[in-house]
Amino acid sequence: MPFSLHQGDALTVLASLPDDCVDAVITDPPYNSGGRTATERTSRTARQKYTSAAAEHQLADFPGENMDQRSFTFWLTQILTEAYRLTKTSGALVLFTDWRQAPAMSDALQAAGWLWRGTMAWHKPATRPQKGRFKQECEFIHWASKGPVDATRNPVYLPGLYSASQPRKDRQHITQKPVSVMRELVKIAPPGGTILDFCMGSGSTGVAALMEGYDFIGVEKTAHYTQIASDRLTEVLAKSTSQDDYVLAGPEE
Questions:
Q1: 86 vs 162, 198, 245, CA distance in Å?
Q2: Average pLDDT, stretch 102-113?
Q3: CATH topology of domain 3-248
Q4: Residue 100 burial by CB count (10 A; 0-12/13-18/19+): exposed, middle or buried?
Q5: pLDDT-derived band of residue 248, with 50, 70 and 90 as boundaries?
Q6: Strand order across the beta sheet in which 138-145 lies
Q7: Which pLDDT score is estimated for 227?
Q8: Of 44, 112, 126, 151, which cross-links 48 as Cys (Cβ 3.0–4.6 Å)?
């Protein structure tokens, strides 16, 4: 099966999976950020933090957004330690973050055993201007490896800067990432490998993985988003199968 989805707590689910079963971990955990003060960051929901009053959608909230920074770093370190165990030697970790949590996330990934390789920028053109301030039009992507990088397994040349706005049409998650960016990021895994996302949300990492010919393991805490991810991935597979059938059924030369 090209994908398997698990609804439940990420740490519990990852502990049930076997060693060395994935080639890359690509994930976008709740940032537990957003707000000027500790009270604002720990007392508001994800919707209150990341959805503007003028938003034209009513997307479902998601949990896990109310930890202080020390708790967040401890939580993420535990999960990334399990993810490290699941990843094959030379496999990659790709981890979305924002400017507030970038230091905590880099601490967590190194404490979990990963070798921090650098930080990339994700530029979001469609962000609102702020009078008297610089625009906050970038988020960031830490990447790391499990041991030395063996470039012979996957001799790709990937950019260190990505530019695309969050999807507006058919958007299904408050913090949904653009599939165009995810399709580039998944290429850090060797062709035909398996990619893990332990905070998969609406499944954009999985959609990108299937489109690029990878298998996918996804973990999501809520039933709502697990179902959305399942529907999206099933649709991708159906389109792929339809295209394959078309090729097979085409006229003989």
A1: 27, 12, 35
A2: 97
A3: Rossmann fold (3.40.50)
A4: middle
A5: very low
A6: 3-7, 215-220, 194-197, 22-27, 87-97, 138-145, 115-123, 161-163
A7: 94
A8: 44
SS3 string, 129-163, reads CCCCCCCCCEEEEEEEECCCCCHHHCCCCCCCEEE
The string of DSSP letters for the chain reads --EEEEES-HHHHHHTSPTT-EEEEEE-------SSSHHHHHHS-HHHHH--TT----PPP-S-----HHHHHHHHHHHHHHHHHHEEEEEEEEEEE-TTTHHHHHHHHHHTT-EEEEEEEEE-SS----TTS----EEEEEEEESSS--GGG------SEEE-PPP-TT--STTPPPHHHHHHHGGGSPTT-EEEETT-TT-HHHHHHHHTT-EEEEEES-HHHHHHHHHHHHHHHHHHHHHHHHHHTSPP-
| Residue 157 CA to its chain's centroid (Å) | 20
* pLDDT exceeds 70 at position 144: yes
Distance of CA 17 to the CA centre of its chain: 19
DSSP-derived pairing of the beta strands 115-123 and 138-145: antiparallel
For the stretch 171-207, pLDDT in tens is 665 667 899 999 999 999 999 999 999 999 989 999 9
Q: Model pTM? A: 0.82
Measure the CA–CA gap between 10 and 221, rounded to whole angstroms. Answer: 7
From the list 173, 174, 181, the residue with the least C-alpha distance to 140 is 181
